[in-house]
Amino acid sequence: MSFCPKCGYPQVCPCPACTERRKDKKTKPWKWALDKNTIICANCGLAKAIDWWENLDMECYEKEIKESIEKEKRRQNERKG
Ligand SMILES: [Zn+2]
Ligand SMILES: [Zn+2]
To answer: Which of 5, 12, 52, 77 lies deepest, with the highest CB count within 10 Å?
Structure first.
């Protein structure tokens, strides 16, 4: 876990899996900007590109994207039959 350099707030992943896994429900997860390339601190609103937050645990999110792509591919193959 990493912390916002501006306000020191802990940065936690907002995806359903991480929210479920997290025992501390009081910590507000970071927010995605509309471009899905920018992360916004839930506490102070500091908005920076993903690369800038390089210490954040992004693996989970990347895995989700890959899984949804795989799922989509499989669905298209099934349609072709
Ligand atoms: Zn997550
Ligand atoms: Zn902050």
So the answer is: 12
pTM exceeds 0.90: no
Domain ranges within the chain, ordered by starting residue? 2-80
Q: Give, for 69, the enclosing helix (H) or strand (E).
A: helix 59-80
Q: Which ligand is located closest to the Cα atom of residue 14?
A: 1
Q: How far is the CA of 15 from the centre of ligand 1 (A)?
A: 4
pLDDT, tens only, 67-81: 888 998 999 999 876
Using CA atoms in the order 67, 69, 73, 76, what is the torsion angle rounded to 10 degrees? 110
Give the ligand whose atoms come closest to the C-alpha of residue 53: 2
Closest ligand to C-alpha of residue 17 is 1
